[in-house]
Design brief:
By secondary structure, this protein is mostly beta strands. The chain has one helix spanning about 55-65; strands at about 5-15, 20, 25-35, 50-55, 70-85, 90-105, 120-125. The chain has a five-stranded mixed β-barrel. The chain starts with 6 loop residues before the first strand and ends in a 22-residue tail after the last strand.
């Protein structure tokens, strides 16, 4: 049996994504999303996981340019575990999702500024070359952000 590693998450961006370039000039963007866990019983506060996301190449540029703090997104990718040694010799593990696709979720603003009833998703895949079909300039979000 072969291995399978696929992750799909829906959450809110916690801070502006940070884009940098590798030594060979490839863009890479890192950010974190807050993903709520389901409530187990009434009256309990909802628990939230903060998950590190990494994007590469064109998707990294898109995330850096269009994602803001509080934006609701869907990420699809694979789980990656990296191990490194700190300056004082301690071993550390980093768990992160390497994204291959990203969907911006939210309610576009109508001409009057009020949000529409239906939720629209805009898919961005790592291979996308042309952003005109995404309608990115029309994407907005009216939801309250808890952070």
């Amino acid at each position: 049996m072969s291995s399978y590693n696929k992750v799909i998450l829906i959450g809110r961006v916690t801070a502006l994504p940070e884009m940098r370039y590798t030594q060979t000039g490839k863009p890479v963007t890192s950010f974190t999303i807050a993903v709520d866990r389901p409530r187990r019983s009434e009256g309990k506060d909802r628990e939230t996981d903060f998950i590190s996301i990494v994007t590469w190449q064109k998707l990294a540029e898109i995330c850096s340019r269009y994602l803001d703090k509080g934006k609701l997104i869907c990420i699809e990718g694979r789980l990656q575990v990296r191990t490194y040694t700190t300056a004082d010799g301690q071993k550390r593990k980093v768990y992160e999702v390497v994204a291959s696709d990203m969907r911006m979720l939210g309610r576009p603003k109508s001409e009057g500024g009020a949000s529409q009833d239906e939720t629209e998703g805009h898919i961005v895949e790592s291979g996308d070359r042309d952003l005109d079909h995404l309608g990115i300039s029309d994407i907005g979000m009216e939801d309250d952000v808890p952070f």
